[in-house]
From TrEMBL:
Record SUPFAM superfamilies: SpoIIaa-like
Xref: Gene3D superfamilies: STAS domain
Protein name as it appears in the record: MlaB-like STAS domain-containing protein
Pfam family of the protein (one): STAS_2
Entry superkingdom: Bacteria
Domain MlaB-like STAS per the UniProt entry, residue ranges: 20-107
Length: 126
């Protein structure tokens, strides 16, 4: 008789982060839509926070230009995440240009930058 080895802790489900994928060029006009998309991922139809313990990841690897409009989007998405139970926004696949801008404006301390590649979780594309 043999038993298969289980991964992880017994009787504990893995916490799958909520993922928002941002691609293309982000303009100031697109920022409210991105925030609304993240809110739809974080809250159910009754306004209750979904998965209070889940992390909030934002994959920015597909953006074509790192500029201040993207920095504004990151800042506002971070606020949306915090309003949903004090969560911290984690950025994935951060281009070096965006990393430099976040450092310059002081947002690198507000969001987690460079938390991974995002290969392990499929996300929602905005």
């Amino acid at each position: 008789m043999s038993f298969g080895r289980r991964t992880g802790l017994p009787d504990v489900e893995a916490m799958i982060p909520i993922v928002l994928v941002v691609t293309g060029r982000v303009t100031r006009a697109a920022v409210p839509g991105l925030c609304a998309e993240l809110e739809s991922l974080l809250y159910d139809s009754e306004g209750t926070v979904r998965d209070p313990g889940a992390g909030v990841d934002c994959d920015v690897g597909g953006v074509v230009q790192a500029d201040l409009a993207l920095v504004e989007a990151v800042a506002r998405l971070g606020l949306v995440a915090r309003r949903a139970g004090g969560r911290r926004l984690r950025l994935r696949n951060v281009p070096p240009e965006l990393q430099s801008l976040l450092d310059l404006v002081g947002l690198a301390d507000v969001v987690d930058v460079g938390c991974g590649t995002g290969d392990e979780v499929a996300g929602n594309e905005a």
